[in-house]
Amino acid sequence: MTAVSILLVDDHPVVREGYRRLLERQVGFRVSAEAEDAAAAYRAYQAERPDVVVMDLSLPGPGGLEAIRHIRQWDRTARLLVFTMHASAAFALKAFEAGACGYITKSSAPHELVRAIATVARGGRALSEDIAREIASERLGNERSLVEDLGPRETEILRLVASGWTTEQIATSLNLSTKTVQNYHYQIKSKIGARTDAHLVWLATAAGLVAPDNAA
């Protein structure tokens, strides 16, 4: 039986090493490549065509949502599993909207990650128990997230703006024109009801898109 090939995407080498050791102890798993940011993940995916991508959301520069969207544009059959610290229903739903097949938090037990990779490799969908509870709670309580009306790219641009990136930096990073980024910026402010850029940053921070110490 051919082993499931895995691409690990996380910006911390020590963390990736820990994942690699865990996964390669499992029968039928093989880590074929690693990447530390969205651009490297895209290149590694094209070179290796792994069966499953295990993707963190918090990456330097464009985050995991953008990496998922980019890989799925290139290969609509790509199987991507988010493995992240963000225990947020909003993040999980945006990840699925971008093309992820599963969402597991880093507070999950190791066997949950192993089981999720196997499920995604078979073509299924996977959720860690804490995220499943968050989504159920939000839906049952009729709560609306700040980013619910934003697309994955809008969510990523909001995160970068709130992190202090300039229009020019965002445009270069996402291969967009500055005019397009400015249009996105205006649309985002309108959709979430931000009166000023400072208010925009405050709303993004309150929604958990950026940590308070990383906000602009």
Description:
By secondary structure, the chain is of the alpha/beta class. It folds into two domains: 4-140, Response regulator (Rossmann fold, 3-Layer(aba) Sandwich); 152-214, Orthogonal Bundle (Arc Repressor Mutant, subunit A), CATH 1.10.10. It is built from ten helices and six strands, in the order βαβαβαβαβαβααααα. A six-stranded parallel β-sheet has the order 2-1-3-4-5-6, sandwiched between helices. Helix 4 (89-98) links the parallel strand 4 (80-84) and strand 5. Helix 4 packs across helix 6 (129-140) and helix 7 (152-162) crosses helix 10. The longest helix is centred in the C-terminal third of the chain and has 15 residues, at 178-192. The model has no long low-confidence stretch (mean pLDDT 86). This is DNA-binding response regulator. Keywords: DNA-binding, Phosphoprotein. It comes from Tardiphaga robiniae. GO terms for molecular function: DNA binding. Pfam families: GerE (PF00196), Response_reg (PF00072).
